[in-house]
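Marked as duplicate of an earlier ticket. Keeping the data here for the record.
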Amino acid sequence: MADLKQWVEDELHSILGMSDNLLTEFIVNLAKKSPSVSDLIVDIQKSADIQRTPGLDKFAAELYGKMPRKRTAAVNSKEIQLKSAKEVERKNKSYQFIPEPKVKAPKKEIPQKEVSESEERNCCCS
């Protein structure tokens, strides 16, 4: 972090013609809290009363790139979802089909209608 503060002091000296320890720490803290480079530039302009120049834009972009960032909750939740999806997929691959049991169903007997002799005689099949 000391190297970063020294770099910021050097850059501020080249942009503003001066550097100050409090201003350096202030700008480093702005960079930590800024969600984007454009927000950092606006914050520096408003808070430190520095006019926007190409040098300031370049400085802000480099400073923003040098800042360690915490991972956002959205990224973490996506990683959690991906991890759980992979776990489910792994479990699914371990499952196998259960073979159908080879049980013979008992045959159902159909009761036959008793045919009387008179009905048998009337049959045209004989």
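See parent ticket for discussion. The chain is about 65% helix and 0% strand.
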